[in-house]
Amino acid sequence: xxxxxxxxxxxxxxxxxxxxxxxxxxxxxxxxxxxxxxxxxxxxxxxxxxxxxxxxxxxxxxxxxxxxx
Length: 69
Fold this sequence. Notes:
By secondary structure, this protein is mainly alpha-helical. 49% of the residues lie in helices and 0% in strands.
């Protein structure tokens, strides 16, 4: 029992020190910027050479579809 109390206090102080370091190093400066960078529009990838990209299913007259490729 005598070990648990100092250990828990030390872990609490370590957590507090990590939080204060994060505050001072600018980790919380722009929390919305990262969120908006994720949803910014980008150009779609090129589909040249890949005829079935963007289709839900291959066309029935497609030879590869009949062979199961």
